[in-house]
UniProtKB/TrEMBL annotation, chain A:
This is ParA family protein. It holds the Pfam family AAA_31. InterPro entries: AAA_dom (IPR025669), DNA_Partitioning_ATPase (IPR050678), P-loop_NTPase (IPR027417). Gene3D superfamilies: P-loop containing nucleotide triphosphate hydrolases. Residues 7-161 form the AAA domain. It comes from the Archaea. The lineage of its organism: Archaea, Methanobacteriati, Methanobacteriota, Stenosarchaea group, Halobacteria.
Length: 294, 160
């Protein structure tokens, strides 16, 4: 790994509908709001992050060069730079494409098919502090590539009774992956999104289990309509003015604090410590300054 | 041990995963020590009563009670919330169904308003609102109390 190799975060949980895409969006946005150069990679064949960022046409364009093709053909790896879209206000994006084939991808049978993304990222011409990978809800090579590339996982959850079983399975799968590739996988944080106005007894019980199990690595965030509107406007909660004003952003930012505390991105000319020390108040102030300038 | 084997199994599973998390260095604390609901979002109440859609165990009995007029439902001028009508039985038995078709944008806006209202209510009350019993009834009562809002919206002359 070079000294400019980014921190690669896998936002992964094989259980569907737990908020991986929204978490990826907000982690990428929260890091970018602190001045880090961020690349988001949509590794989910469903392309939800890609679609949420307004790039549905790209996702549907089967003729477009896509990450799955490049991952399969190491001779074409220098073309990875052509995959990057730089027009989002917060971070760059490598989109998903319909050509990804989900659980049944040729990567399954390719040599070291689950250990290619890291090598590929070394070919990036632009330097990034962080690469945020939105993983599919499975243990396909797409998800595993994100883990092997950075060995750091963030797990989004919901307060449903399936969580203990699914977490057990997650630990199993990544334990084997770590053993096979001699990885030191770190779980940086667990995020549970609740709707505090609709908590059943089972939900509350799962929140209690979550607190007991993950303690200081667990963050609980409450559903906010403003956050849903951020997603709809193709922004993270850090760039969406209404969400940034919302008091829940401070709680959500505990997730970012956990990530920042446990990662050491390359400097790339940035005062990394100062960027890490930025609070939500600092981000709000910076956003207000930008608004005045505009 | 509980009387329910599936409950014991679930408890064991939760505890196993907690221990595993601790071994993986994921947890920062002893899983046996309960920190629990302290970290719940501030607007979460500590009540233990399960929130559920209002359903009567015996809808026909509820309907009968309404029909028999043992208690009439609230009218346009009733402004009591949470709506006491919910005690009369299941929503579908007590209230009349009235389908409304709206543009997707308006549906989204109504959903957003409901989320905001529900959250604000929860912050300042010990009770909970129900979307049908309370929110939709409040929306329509506001209109019925202020019909000129509709006339304005439609660009009509408002009544003096």
């Amino acid at each position: 790994m070079t000294d400019t190799y980014p921190e690669v975060l896998a936002i992964s949980f094989q259980k569907g509908g737990t908020g991986k895409t929204f978490t990826s969006l907000n982690i990428a946005g929260g890091l970018a709001a602190r001045g880090f150069n961020v690349l988001a990679i949509d590794l989910d064949p469903q392309g939800t992050l890609t679609a949420n960022l307004g790039k549905r046409d790209l996702y549907k364009d089967l003729d477009a060069l896509s990450l799955d093709e490049i991952l399969l053909d190491p001779k074409s790896w220098d073309n990875v730079n052509d995959l990057i879209h730089t027009d989002h206000e917060e971070f760059d994006l490598i989109p998903s494409n319909q050509s990804y084939n989900g659980n049944k991808t040729p990567l399954d049978s390719a040599d070291a098919g689950e250990n290619r993304l890291g090598r590929l990222l070394e070919r990036l011409e632009d330097d990034y502090h962080y690469v945020v990978c939105d993983c599919p809800p499975d243990f396909s090579p797409y998800a595993k590539n994100a883990v092997t590339a950075g060995e750091k996982i963030v797990v989004p959850m919901e307060p449903e009774t399936e969580m203990p079983h699914s977490t057990d399975l997650l630990f199993d799968q990544y334990e084997v992956l770590g053993m096979m590739h001699d990885l030191e996988i770190q779980y940086l944080a667990f995020l549970m999104t609740v709707n505090s106005t609709k908590m059943t007894n089972e939900n509350k019980r799962m929140v209690e289990w979550f607190n007991e199990t993950f303690d200081e690595k667990g963050v609980i965030t409450d559903h906010r309509a403003a956050f849903a509107r951020a997603k709809k406007s193709q922004q993270s909660i850090y760039a969406h003015p209404e969400s940034l004003r919302n008091d829940e952003v401070e709680r959500y930012d505990e997730l970012l604090q956990l990530i920042l505390k446990q990662t050491s991105p390359p400097t790339l000319g940035l005062d990394v410590e100062a960027a890490k020390a930025m609070t939500v108040e600092d981000i709000r102030a910076a956003a207000a300054d930008q608004e005045v300038e505009a | 041990m509980s009387d329910d084997p599936s409950e014991d199994d679930f408890e064991a599973q939760m505890s196993d995963v907690s221990e595993r998390a601790q071994k993986l260095g994921v947890s920062g604390s002893d899983p046996s020590s309960s920190s629990g609901a302290e970290s719940l979002p501030e607007n979460t109440t500590g009540d233990t009563e399960e929130i559920a859609e209002v359903d009567s165990d015996d809808p026909s009995a509820a309907q009968q009670a309404v029909e028999q007029g043992s208690r009439t439902t609230g009218g346009p001028d009733t402004h009591e919330y949470p709506n006491p009508d919910r005690e009369l039985g299941a929503l579908a038995d007590v209230y009349a169904n009235n389908n409304v078709f709206l543009s997707p944008e308006v549906v989204d806006a109504v959903e957003g308003l409901w989320d905001d209202i529900e959250y604000e209510w929860k912050k300042s009350h010990d009770t909970e609102l129900n979307k049908n019993w309370d929110f939709y009834m409040a929306c329509f009562r506001v209109i019925l109390d202020n019909p000129n809002l509709i006339r304005d919206e439609l660009g009509m002359d408002t009544e003096e």
